[in-house]
Amino acid sequence: MLGLLVGTLDSVLDSTAKVAPFRILHQTPDSQVYLSIACGANREEITKHWDWLEQNIMKTLSVFDSNEDITNFVQGKIRGLIAEEGKDSFAKEDDPEKFREALLKFEKSIGLPEQEKLVTYYSCSYWKGRVPCQGWLYLSTNFLSFYSFLLGSEIKLIISWDAVSKLEKTSTVILTESIHVCSQGEDHYFSMFLHINETYLLMEQLANYAIKRLFDKETFDNDPVLDDPLQITKRGLEYRAHSEQFKAFFRLPKEETLKEVHECFLWVPFSHFSTHGKMCISDNYICFASQDGNLCSVIIPLREVLAVDKTDDPNRSVIISIKGKTAFRFNEVKDFDQLVAKLRLKCRAASTQCDVSTEVAISSDATGQCGHLEEQPLTCQKECSKTVNTEALMTVFHPQNLENLDSKMLKEKMKEQSWNILFSECGRGVSMFRTKKTRDLVVRGIPETLRGELWMLFSGAVNDMATNPGYYAEVVEQSLGTCNLATEEIERDLRRSLPEHPAFQSDTGISALRRVLTAYAYRNPKIGYCQAMNILTSVLLLYAKEEEAFWLLVAVCERMLPDYFNRRIIGALVDQAVFEELIRDHLPQLTEHMTDMTFFSSVSLSWFLTLFISVLPIESAVNVVDCFFYDGIKAILQLGLAILDYNLDKLLTCKDDAEAVTALNRFFDNVINKDSPLPSNVQQGSNINEKSSHTKVDITDLIKESNEKYGSIRYEDIHSMRCRNRLYVIQTLEETTKQNVLRVVSQDVKMTLQELDELYVIFKKELFISCYWYLSCPGLKHHDPSLSYLEQYQIDCQQFRVLYHLLSPWAHSANRDSLALWTFRLLDENSDCLINFKEFSSAIDIMYNGSFTEKLKLLFKLHIPPAYTEVMSKTSSKGDELSTEELLYFSQLQVSKHADKKEAESGKNTPEKGKGKIDIQAYLSQWQDELLKKEENIKDLPRMNQSQFIQFSKTLYNLFHEDPEEESLYQAIAIVTNLLLRMEEVGRKLHSPTSSAKEFSSTACDSGPRGPEGNADSNVEKGPSSPREEHQWSFAFEQILASLLNEPALVRFFERPLDLKAKIENVKSSQLRSRTKV
User: Fold this and answer.
1) Which pairing describes strands 1034-1035 and 153-160: parallel, antiparallel, or unpaired?
2) How far apart are CA 720 and CA 225, in angstroms?
């Protein structure tokens, strides 16, 4: 109660809430709770509210018997009024004045860089422990922010979307409805929203957008709708969400976008009634779904439309006539005149497009990405026939014998008859009515002869094939003869795909499978080929023609099971997490028994990847595929729950995971399809089932049970769970990457594991911050999860400079930009203008934990090639500061000289990155070289010439600036410099008495007492020294080291302990803030 009381005071006293001075409160007798009914800025306004209450509320109160009923009525009435008001407020939400005011508050209170785009804002409470704080929640492109100022106490919270690992709606005793955000192990709760569902959906979209953009580049590249972070708006996000839901429900091509939605009634001729629902119109389709989506739905491609007419009756009807003498009548359509005009224009454009476009070229994306693949004659792959099969393999290898009809064949014919009756009522083809009866027939199993046609229809692949005529034949022609990693893996797995089936014991089936898989790998090189695709494609080829099987594979990989078939199988991991969540909800007793829920993930992975084909006999698995193409992933989740439920008693008695796996495998062995017309030599489970004494389970009964028990699971719930668990899965993968990187790096540095962990977070954060506000970020282009852990995140010179300024103990130096540049060039050993975390941490470790010799050696190496390059800013007013363009230019200097050499070496010594051939020997050789790598001998370091030594001296002076022992250090370095020059002069006189060293001596020594603010710069030659001078004047590292060791002030300076932990804590709080200054 104390927390709620403080929350009330908070909302009253919060200056941002602007609470009105006049209020009307409702109190139930004998209760200390007051409900705020109305408020006003002055007496006149509150009097109007009171008059309205007298007229509309108080007269009704006399009918209630108890005070509690009166309170409930008043509460419900006021909430209803708020909801009605909310409907109007949505339309006015983009009020420019209100939004501008909120934007100014956001910029002033949160203090993010001006590029950060505010999407929307909400009033809510943020819970600090048991106390709620009233304030404003700001949702921007890259951050979730909260700000509250109460009684002089300020609360400011900034969470980047890419750090969110959990986002969910929760409900507790104290918080009836709240939004829970988990970021970097910390939990945050927000409540008291007026529209919590809307707020949650927007947060979910922004979090998933950030995750895709920064972590999941493969998915993001395929989704260009939101590629510009500066163009994201609330309206755009809502529109996108509706469009995605529309495409998923109707299984439309990914290029489609929702344009219009109209509420109307569709006349259903075979039922003689009109069903209420929504007409959804996209670029190329008119779709309808009843209010209850399972009741009736229709998809009308504009390419099939012959005419669009309207009636003169008061029903405001639109009649759409399509090929095949079928017409659809939509009644009670608002603005039907304008709608008819628009549809006629769309149909005219669609028919023109069909007439003109007879060929469809392969997408530029596919050809562009395939262009770099190594293409050469494929000696291991000999095509027996380049002709694309025009018949399903089942038709070729198992033609139906109509003369000999046994009981199973009679049942099959009865199924066909049922479908023919449905076709006569609902139509046949892409525009057929889809009703509850359609689903019932699918659950019973689709007849063998109709399976390919209906798979194409329900998956939406029929639309892909119709809009891309000739595409498959062209891809097959271009892909044959190529050789790369994908084709080698395909060749290896060809004869492992349903090897017991006669179709894949012959060259006909093997060649068709090869063509489809190779063509798809060519079409989509980002996926290429993944295991399990061969098993799925084999089944598709049994029932569909070769070109149809290709488009079915496209539908599965790119729409129905997104992100399943890539290196990280993120989609499958997400759906397994969804499956675990459903198990907790529907089978709690199993959850209580299993100590580790990851068991279900490990055992069910093959269920999801192969749609149960790998665990069920083929004659039973095809029934599961039937349901999958009709209901999507919902069918697989339901069946998984039904299987666990059926085996619940056995699983509860299992003592370990191995026993549970054995029980499930025994169950799968005894699943039969008693109505399958396939010959016994094809049915995989026939021989086992005859000998087995275990109870047989018919697949049809199992699927029916899964629909009856778990059919209440909604598509919307699955989508929400997928979004929620995607955050968790990707963050878990990122955590695994981090732990592997830390394990490797920790062996080579003196930092503690905690310091290294926090340094990694800062390193990665800087990469992301530099990508927040730009359309195409170089850092993201180099992010490839298929690379080794160390190479997945790399920073360029500009990002390194920012981190150097924040972290380096030498960042106070006047020439810090030059030091950052030289350090980067030193670390960039392979000259690709990028460094990884191992290289970055090695430099920071030396700066903080290195010995006197190690620190001095680092400084020495920074002032000799390849690290050192003469730096001169084009803008004299900036002094030693370098612009981004200058920094990137200097970081790339001399790279071209070694490019050919480096490339040749990398071809021999390092494995190829990406998806090309992987040279295992190169990996082993590289690993062995690293193990045998010894500490660098200081005698091997090259000598430092005159101009480099002058710059080295200047750097030391800059490092000592504002140090407590500044004067002593300046004097010490002057003594060392003078000593080195005199030693060199003596040595030079022994060889050439005529040259003069005094000029150089006075140049360097005179710069000493003045320090970095003196005129040393004016005496340094701007151009490069002549080769002769460089040869004459040079110093070895041992000379410099020995001279510096003689000065105690210099030794104390470099051996002074530095607190890296405190520096990291400071950087964590200032890293984002510093971005506003850079």
Assistant:
1) unpaired
2) 20
Helix (H, G, I), strand (E, B) or coil at 131: strand
Q: What is the C-alpha to C-alpha distance for residues 971 and 424, in angstroms, rounded to an integer? A: 102
Distance CA 471, CA 361 (A): 7
Q: What share of the chain is helix, strand, coil (3-state, %, to 5)?
A: 55, 10, 30
The number of angstroms, rounded, from the C-alpha of 1001 to the middle of its chain's C-alpha atoms is: 60
- Nearest CA to 651 out of 699, 712, 603 is that of 603
For residue 578, give both structure tokens. Answer: 């969804």
Q: What is the mean pLDDT of residues 275-301?
A: 90
Q: What is the rounded CA–CA span in Å between residue 88 and residue 159?
A: 31
CA dihedral for 774, 777, 783, 789, sign (positive or negative): negative
From the list 151, 98, 149, 87, the residue with the least C-alpha distance to 122 is: 98
d(CA 134, CA 12): 9
* Amino acid 106: pLDDT: 93
Alpha-carbon torsion, ordered 518, 523, 528, 533, to 10 deg: -60
Task: Name 160's bridge partners.
Answer: 143
For the residues 1027-1056, what does the mean pLDDT come to? 82
Distances in Å between the alpha carbon of 25 and those of 36, 50, 70, 134, 541?
5, 11, 14, 20, 71
Angle at 269 between CA 306 and CA 421, to 5 degrees: 95
In sequence order, what are the beta bridge partners of 944?
Answer: 1035
- Provide CB contacts within 8 A for 859, sequence distance 6+: 952, 955, 956
pLDDT tens digits, 640-651 = 999 999 999 999
- Name 136's bridge partners: 123, 147
Is the pTM higher than 0.90? The answer reads no
Main-chain phi, psi angles of 123, to 5 degrees: -85, 135
Of 328, 323, 326, nearest in space to 296 by CA: 328
Q: Is residue 809 within 8 Å of residue 1058, measured between CB atoms?
A: yes
Q: Exposed, middle or buried: residue 940 (CB in 10 Å: 0-12, 13-18, 19+)?
A: exposed
Note the pLDDT tens digit of each residue in 936-973: 577 778 999 888 999 999 999 999 988 899 899 999 99
Q: Name the maximum alpha-carbon separation found in the chain.
A: 120
- Say which residues have a Cβ less than 8 Å from residue 678's Cβ, sequence separation at least 6: 398, 448, 618, 619
- Sign of the Cα torsion 873, 878, 881, 884 reads negative
Burial classification of residue 296, based on how many CB atoms lie within 10 Å of its CB (0-12 exposed, 13-18 middle, 19 or more buried): buried
CA gap 971, 560 in Å, rounded: 74
Q: What is the pLDDT of the chain when averaged over all its residues?
A: 81
Report the alpha-carbon distance of residue 715 to residue 48 in Å, rounded: 47
> In angstroms, how far is the first alpha carbon of the chain from the final one?
47
d(CA 566, CA 562): 10
Count how many Cα atoms sit within 13 Å of the Cα of residue 19 in the half-sphere of its side chain: 15
The share of the chain scoring above pLDDT 90, in percent, equals 45
Contact 330, 485 (CB under 8 A): no
CB-based contact 269:319 (threshold 8 Å): no
Cα Rg for the chain, rounded, in angstroms?
36
- Helices 546-555 and 507-523 sit at what angle, rounded to 10 degrees? 40
**Residue 171 — very low, low, confident or very high, per pLDDT cuts 50/70/90?**
confident
Q: Respond yes or no on whether the N-terminal peptide bond of residue 778 is cis (omega within 30° of 0).
A: no
Q: What angle do CA 38, 39, 45 make, to 5 degrees?
A: 105
**Residue 133: enclosing H or E segment and its boundaries?**
strand 131-140
Neighbours of 189 (CB within 10 A): 17
Q: Give tens-digit pLDDT for 380-428.
A: 333 433 567 778 888 888 777 666 677 888 888 999 999 999 999 999 9
Give residue 453's region: left, alpha or beta (phi > 0; psi -120 to 50).
Answer: alpha
244-253, 259-268, 377-386, 829-838: the lowest-pLDDT one: 377-386
